[in-house]
């Protein structure tokens, strides 16, 4: 089991940006924490921003919804 912790970064969350550690196990984020458990390899983000990967599915909409509507409901549809 590979364990890593991204520390000292500004983590971009849904509604906020927090200075918190990101815990990763086998290439998956498993949690956010103020501390790093024993056995984790440290990755120092050095004050940089940490964000999830973004996927561009390049769609304009469907089912009578358009991404240009600018509403979460249209995006979800």
């Amino acid at each position: 089991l590979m364990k890593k912790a991204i520390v000292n970064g500004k983590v971009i969350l849904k509604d906020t940006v927090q200075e918190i550690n990101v815990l990763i196990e086998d290439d998956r984020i498993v949690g956010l924490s103020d501390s790093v458990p024993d056995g984790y390899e440290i990755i120092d983000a050095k004050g940089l921003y940490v964000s999830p990967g973004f996927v561009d599915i390049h769609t304009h909409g469907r089912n009578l919804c358009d991404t240009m509507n600018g509403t979460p409901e249209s995006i979800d549809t």
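The chain has a mean pLDDT of 90. Residues 5 and 23 are 5 Å apart (CA to CA).
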